[in-house]
Amino acid sequence: MLASKLNQKDILASGEDFHFSRSVLSNRRPKALHSQDYFELFWLHNGRARFVTEEGRETLNEGDIVFVSPGVAHGLQGVGEESHLVNIIIRRRRIKDMWERYPQTTRFFREAGTAPVRVHRDSRHLARLSSSAIALEGAPRSQLYLDAFLLPLMAELCGELREAPAAAPTWLVTAMAAAQDPNVFREGAAGLVAQCGKAHAHVARTMRAHFDQTPSDFVNALRMDYAARQLAGTPDPLSEIADEIGIQNMSHFHRLFRARFGMTPRQYRVKHQKGVIQPV
Predict the structure, then answer these.
(1) pTM here?
(2) Per its UniProt record, what PROSITE patterns does this chain match (predicted)?
(3) C-beta atoms surrounding 111 within 10 Å
(4) For 150-174, how does the pLDDT look when each residue is reduced to its tens digit (9 = 90+)?
(5) Helix (H, G, I), strand (E, B), or coil: what is residue 86?
(6) Contact 42, 120 (CB under 8 A)
(7) What confidence tens digit (pLDDT) does each residue in 172-205 have?
(8) Helix (H) / strand (E) containing 52
């Protein structure tokens, strides 16, 4: 799929530091991907979507936020009924200025060409984000109002990372945050270890010492939490959900899910989708 390139000079007027938009995504598969020379942040306010990159595609659900760096070819496709997207395009130098002041923000907005970072916000966090977005939508397009929106969001995300034990090494905490991305946890424990840049045995010892769990324990919990969101919010078949999280053995999937939630995937879906026609 060929990629075109979008430029900030064609979107941001002189003196503007960001562009804010809301849209309803088309259900048509994008004919071509696009890359860009600016930073971008978007989230699903409602509905579902497919996020398509040169590496493949993944499902986005309501509350999923994606941070996209320059030079990453991508596209979006709505799934089902109206998929409402909120999108913020940010001038390059504003994020680079932010990196200098707050190095922690490189966990989310990364160097050009680096894979997008995806995080999920539950309904409580999403309501707060939506309120902040309304204020930003009506504000002047200046750095002051951009920072007033971005910094509380990223401080909140960084604060969640701080819940890790103080003695836990930064490389492990950062890798565990990155592992919340389906592109990482789909690879299982190997995906987490790759983010660490350390030998598997060293990562396993360190996780056991600081978190009393193995890399597989941690990654499988992320996988099951993602599967639970899919079961509650989509009609996708169990086999498709299992494939999305990198598990091909359905018996293994059922064992892990029951251990996490105390019920089978089907029981969980029935409980959380009352009144919705269930897939066979």
Answers:
(1) 0.67
(2) HTH_ARAC_FAMILY_1, HTH_ARAC_FAMILY_2
(3) 10
(4) 999 998 888 776 666 767 887 888 7
(5) strand
(6) no
(7) 887 888 888 888 899 999 999 998 889 999 999 9
(8) strand 39-53
